[in-house]
Amino acid sequence: MSAAQAMLREGLGTLAPRLAIVLGSGLGTLVDAVEPVFRRSYADIPGFPVSAVSGHAGELVAGRLAGVPVVMLSGRVHYYERGDAKAMQAPIETLKALGITDLFLTNSAGSLREDLPPGSVMLITDHINYAGTSPLIGVDSDSRFVGLTTAYDAGLRAAMTAAAGRAGVPLGAGVYMWFSGPNFETPAEIRMARILGADAVGMSTVPEVILARHAGLRVAAASVITNFGAGMTGGELSHAETKDMAPIGGKRLAAILTELIRSGLPD
Ligand code: HPA
Asked: 131 C-alpha vs ligand 1 centroid, how far in Å?
């Protein structure tokens, strides 16, 4: 058992969560809805990565949300921080070892669609790995040949859509395209992304989806739209804008996730 697993097993006690949620930039408010049993910053969990990006405080909070045991990973480490696509490997593998079966990933993203304006929420149905790397490079067994045909679980997506309906929150759906960042895209790249079939662009999540599928977790993911893609509206993009906008859609996403958790995950 890894040192992280041992620490979390002891910290969780009898709490036996099935679901873990990774909260992206500015989406940390969902943590406030959790009655915590155990919380630690990543810096204090052996092997967990520490992010230096503002707005991405790394903290694990385990407890109950609407009475249901959950683990929240508030903040992630991005590929662009060190060029390491495996940055979130230790947290994901630790969750799996603790008995987590379902992982819900969230992020903020730029929209490529006029009908998904800033403040809206998009369920990710599929992705395009435009960063072109994989966290599984260097894995030395046939387990590395992970299929991604059904990476975004159909049952979890249906449950999310139903939960959004019950919560009265509009929920879009579309394809997320991973750019390495940390620079934003050019207008030409955004036009390309639209032609290639993307609905939103962002700098995260895809490596975690691949790691989670490698670990055998069921995966769902959603984007909070913070801005239109570069060149779609004229102005320059900024991290400050994405941080300011994230909590708006973040509240909507939190309402959907809370309803999903309250009503129970599909088998
Ligand atoms: N591009 C990439 N990542 C993002 C964006 C964007 O426009 N908005 C929020 N994260």
From this structure: 14
Q: Ligand 1 centroid vs 46 CA: distance in angstroms?
A: 30
Q: For residue 129, how far is its CA from the centre of ligand 1 (angstroms)?
A: 15
End-to-end CA gap in the chain: 28
Which residues neighbour 117 within 8 Å (Cβ) at sequence distance 6 or greater?
111, 225, 228
Closest residue by Cα to atom 6, ligand 1, is 110
The pLDDT assigned to 168 comes to 97
- Please report which residue ranges of 109-181 form alpha helices under DSSP H: 154-167
Mean pLDDT for the chain overall = 94
How much is the pLDDT for 27?
81
| Cβ-proximal residues to 235 (8 Å cutoff; 6+ apart), any chain | none
Q: Give the burial string for 64-95 (b: 16+ CB within 10 Å, else e).
A: bbeebbbbbbbbbbbbbbeebbbbbbbbbbbb
Domain 3-263 CATH (choose: 3.40.50.1580, 3.40.50.300, 3.30.43.10, 1.20.1260.10): 3.40.50.1580
DSSP three-state, residue 98: coil
Give 2-54 pLDDT, tens digit per residue. 999 999 999 999 999 999 999 987 788 889 999 999 999 999 999 999 877 66
Compute the distance between CA of residue 95 and CA of residue 207 in angstroms, rounded to an integer: 16
Predicted confidence at residue 52, as pLDDT, reads 73
* pTM greater than the 0.70 cutoff: yes
- Among 25, 242, 243, name the best residue to mutate to test ligand 1's pocket (greatest count of ligand atoms within 8 A of Cβ): 242
CA of 110 to the centre of ligand 1 (A): 4
pLDDT (average), residues 81-96: 96
Candidates 41, 198, 222; CA nearest to 112 is 198
